[in-house]
Amino acid sequence: KVVRTRGELLNTSVLETLRMFREGSDLDALARMRSLAISTIVGHLCSACLSFVKQEIRRKELSQVLVWDRP
User: Fold this and answer.
1) Is the dihedral of CA 29, 34, 40, 46 positive or negative?
2) CA distances from 50 to 2, 62, 63 (A)
3) CA 31 to CA 25: how far, in whole Å?
4) C-alpha angle 11-34-1 in degrees, rounded to nearest 5
5) Per-block average pLDDT, block size 10, for the chain (71 residues)?
6) pTM across the whole model
7) Staple 51 to which of 8, 21, 59, 71, CB 3.0 to 4.6 Å?
């Protein structure tokens, strides 16, 4: 399943990894609890970070378009 989060598509596995990480689980614990490789956990976290960075860039680009000096 794929979920749209802040304009980006993140699958439910990525969202679950992110939730658990935010709750304080470290990489080793996440990999063990989710039965995934540490590299997969890192990939999930990178995907989530990239999604949020892209959203922030879009927000800043929009604010630059909406705010301008009037003559």
Assistant:
1) negative
2) 16, 18, 20
3) 10
4) 20
5) 58 91 96 97 92 78 61 52
6) 0.71
7) 8
